[in-house]
Amino acid sequence: MIPLLHIVMLLVSISLTSALSTTLTPGNSLSVEKEGDYLVSPNGTFTSGFYNVGSNAYCFSIWFTNSVDKTVVWMANRDGPVNGKQSRLTLHESGNLVLLNADGSIVWSTNTQTQSNDAGVELRLLETGNLVLINVAPDKNVRNTMWESFDFPTDTLVASQQLTRNTSLVSVRSRGTYLSGFYNLKFDDNNVLDLLYNGPLLSSVYWPNSVTTIFYSGRAPYNNSRIAGINEIGSFISSDNLVFNASYYGVGLKRRLTLDYDGILRLYTLEDEGSWKLSWRPGGLEACMVQGLCGVNGICSYNPLPTCVCPRGFNRNDPSDWSKGCSPMFNFNPPLPCGDPGDPTDQLDFVEHPKTDFYGYDLDTYEAGISLQKCRSKCLNDCRCKGFGYALDGQGQCFPKGALRNGYRTPGNRIITHIKVPKGTLISSKEDSNFQVPAAAAGALNCSNKQLFVDNSSVQVQDGQTRQKNKNGYMKYLIAFAASVAGIELICFGLGWWYVFRNPSESIDAAGYNIALALGFKRFTYSELKKATRNFKEEIGNGGFGTVYKGVLEDQRVVAVKRLEGVVQGDTQFWAEVSIIGKINHRNLVKLWGFCAENEHKILVYEYVENGSLDKILFKDSSSTWVLGWDQRYNIALGTAKGLLYLHEECLEWVLHCDVKPQNILIDAHFEPKVADFGMSMLFKDGNDTGFSRVRGTRGYLAPEWMMNLKIDAKADVYSYGILVLELLTGKSASAGVESENECSDLVELVTKMIREEQVEKIIDPKLQGKYNKEQFKRMVEVALLCVKDDRNARPAMSKVVHLLHGHHDESKSDEDIE
């Protein structure tokens, strides 16, 4: 039967490809449906063809053939992908190269035409990676280039390709997408090569730094050639005197210069195993100084990697795109008075953000040597002022802000930014992630005769008609403010003195400690957790990273307390890594509530998940009166995929799990799956930031690349997920019977055998007694077999897995049910 043949072909991965060619002649086409319908360069360095960019979405592209991830260097239609069926690239007799969608519409074209009816036309992919359309004279001796891809770069330059006055590099929109982004590398009107943020609302240069002069940066605007490029030995040379060399310098290496999604220009060198090594990036360009990275009102901070946050009182506009920034959770309705003889401070207040600045949108400085109170007062009465920065350098520098863009926070920043908000919006100076808005301020200002204002202890309501101005209020405010500051300093000094000298052997790095304090969760003491777990009495789990105990905190929250074993990191590095894990939040991921780091005690505190791990439910004895139903299994597969998708593609800090298995899938009271133990690879890494020096994970779930000593990426998690899906289908454990790390999973072999023998119905767990959805069963089988392919490049990304499980089929596959 056709469905069975389809599955067999899927399992054995038979690839029936057409002969690869270096040229395309008039009247011929490359089809999106024909696997292997490509053009290749003479020595095979580059390949050109249809490249999958999404669910049933393809772009005609050029990529490095031997790179692990088939790295794209050029796309014809990255902003207009074509259908995965019936789309084709056709070379007409007239000399025009056109990309046709499934409906026959032209998506992209070279808009070329031969000069003579006697001339022939060829499309060739050169060894340089340049796709050229050549006009060939009848005697074959004269060849004119009609069109070439080098003249229309996307986000990448390759060796011998030049950037000119008429071309530019444009970044992709975000990690994992190929749409045109907002960052450009181009020559400006002064003949200087710039990195430019070209967003929907504004455009500005962020490199070289506009604060310093072009000459100080070593650039030369007095030229008119505007040519730049990288040569075969790894040198980049530009007509404006920008020159740099790859750290891996020499002939014979493959390189690419790419403007990445984060706005940073990077030079990469291709290593022998197919991975890319960073060879250069602009000196002095910090990630958080890239404009537009976190959008309007957003703040970029190092946690320790670049992380976007919203100011207190603001919400993220788009959960999937930080470039769209943040919006206030309040609005000024009706408009508040500014510059009015009345007192606008009745309705306005400021929120402080230490070590934070918004650069590029300063209004005219009010005056030199201004006091904080005077700066505050002037901004309150200035309609243009959205807030102000005040420098703690003793010089009285006030920087009123006309807009809150390009926000950044660094430990060494001596500026405190004060953002203007309606009074009563905030009740404390809690961290961004802990902020909550009172109900009265969440939508609009309270317009009755009663006004909200901030008190040190609570939000109180006071009758506006009975409020009277005190002519000595200004002086009282200053005296109170000075006394408060002095008191806080004394308290901080005392606490700091006590903390340092209470245990002379405990050396704490101040920067690392600040990172820990900046988290949205609590730092527990060892004694607190010892009490919560009754001296670590009730063990609920045990794994390679440590033992988990059930505990109850003083606020009666039930928690899971994991005592980590084998952590060799110091406190600073441990806190830095924990800070990344603590910021990760998704309904299908176990939430980290806190941590402990005291000498040898490294402990993580998680939310408690009621039904425990999946293995204890799925692999119950067949005599059990309760069995995991089909709907629950399908939901677990889908929810787990969504959790991994968030870690791989949607989380700002890219995280590999490295140990996906039923023991790390927890099931809550509503039978929603929650992925646990993500981020452990960061806490237990061995100092090698580029990969792993030893196998991590569990036998039976390990992808082949672990044993082949290849670089590990997200596709290793995809393989383990495929094994997990096979377990949900069969009810059998993949780790049972696997004796060595080099042995293939017996479960994959078992399912393969059943399908080859046309016994598909025997795959399903007999405990289900034949009660399952055939369409969902087909999807899960398809997903599992795709995920466990030996070639990791053939495995889907988790985003595609979620699409397939939702029923968005790969159009190239049969839609018939498995019978």
TrEMBL record:
<feature type="domain" description="Protein kinase">
    <location>
        <begin position="534"/>
        <end position="809"/>
    </location>
</feature>
<dbReference type="GO" id="GO:0004674">
    <property type="term" value="F:protein serine/threonine kinase activity"/>
</dbReference>
<protein>
    <recommendedName>
        <fullName>Receptor-like serine/threonine-protein kinase</fullName>
        <ecNumber>2.7.11.1</ecNumber>
    </recommendedName>
</protein>
<keyword id="KW-0245">EGF-like domain</keyword>
<dbReference type="InterPro" id="IPR000719">
    <property type="entry name" value="Prot_kinase_dom"/>
</dbReference>
<keyword id="KW-0812">Transmembrane</keyword>
<dbReference type="GO" id="GO:0016020">
    <property type="term" value="C:membrane"/>
</dbReference>
<dbReference type="InterPro" id="IPR000858">
    <property type="entry name" value="S_locus_glycoprot_dom"/>
</dbReference>
<feature type="transmembrane region" description="Helical">
    <location>
        <begin position="477"/>
        <end position="500"/>
    </location>
</feature>
<dbReference type="Pfam" id="PF00954">
    <property type="entry name" value="S_locus_glycop"/>
</dbReference>
<dbReference type="InterPro" id="IPR011009">
    <property type="entry name" value="Kinase-like_dom_sf"/>
</dbReference>
<dbReference type="InterPro" id="IPR003609">
    <property type="entry name" value="Pan_app"/>
</dbReference>
<dbReference type="Pfam" id="PF01453">
    <property type="entry name" value="B_lectin"/>
</dbReference>
<dbReference type="GO" id="GO:0048544">
    <property type="term" value="P:recognition of pollen"/>
</dbReference>
<comment type="similarity">
    <text>Belongs to the protein kinase superfamily. Ser/Thr protein kinase family.</text>
</comment>
<keyword id="KW-0472">Membrane</keyword>
<keyword id="KW-1015">Disulfide bond</keyword>
<dbReference type="GO" id="GO:0005524">
    <property type="term" value="F:ATP binding"/>
</dbReference>
<dbReference type="InterPro" id="IPR024171">
    <property type="entry name" value="SRK-like_kinase"/>
</dbReference>
<keyword id="KW-0418">Kinase</keyword>
<keyword id="KW-0723">Serine/threonine-protein kinase</keyword>
<dbReference type="InterPro" id="IPR001480">
    <property type="entry name" value="Bulb-type_lectin_dom"/>
</dbReference>
<keyword id="KW-0732">Signal</keyword>
<dbReference type="Pfam" id="PF08276">
    <property type="entry name" value="PAN_2"/>
</dbReference>
<feature type="signal peptide">
    <location>
        <begin position="1"/>
        <end position="19"/>
    </location>
</feature>
<keyword id="KW-0547">Nucleotide-binding</keyword>
<feature type="domain" description="Apple">
    <location>
        <begin position="338"/>
        <end position="420"/>
    </location>
</feature>
<dbReference type="InterPro" id="IPR008271">
    <property type="entry name" value="Ser/Thr_kinase_AS"/>
</dbReference>
<keyword id="KW-1133">Transmembrane helix</keyword>
<dbReference type="Pfam" id="PF00069">
    <property type="entry name" value="Pkinase"/>
</dbReference>
<dbReference type="GO" id="GO:0106310">
    <property type="term" value="F:protein serine kinase activity"/>
</dbReference>
<feature type="binding site">
    <location>
        <position position="562"/>
    </location>
    <ligand>
        <name>ATP</name>
    </ligand>
</feature>
<feature type="domain" description="Bulb-type lectin">
    <location>
        <begin position="15"/>
        <end position="146"/>
    </location>
</feature>
<keyword id="KW-0325">Glycoprotein</keyword>
<keyword id="KW-0067">ATP-binding</keyword>
<dbReference type="InterPro" id="IPR036426">
    <property type="entry name" value="Bulb-type_lectin_dom_sf"/>
</dbReference>
<dbReference type="InterPro" id="IPR017441">
    <property type="entry name" value="Protein_kinase_ATP_BS"/>
</dbReference>
<keyword id="KW-0808">Transferase</keyword>
<keyword id="KW-0675">Receptor</keyword>
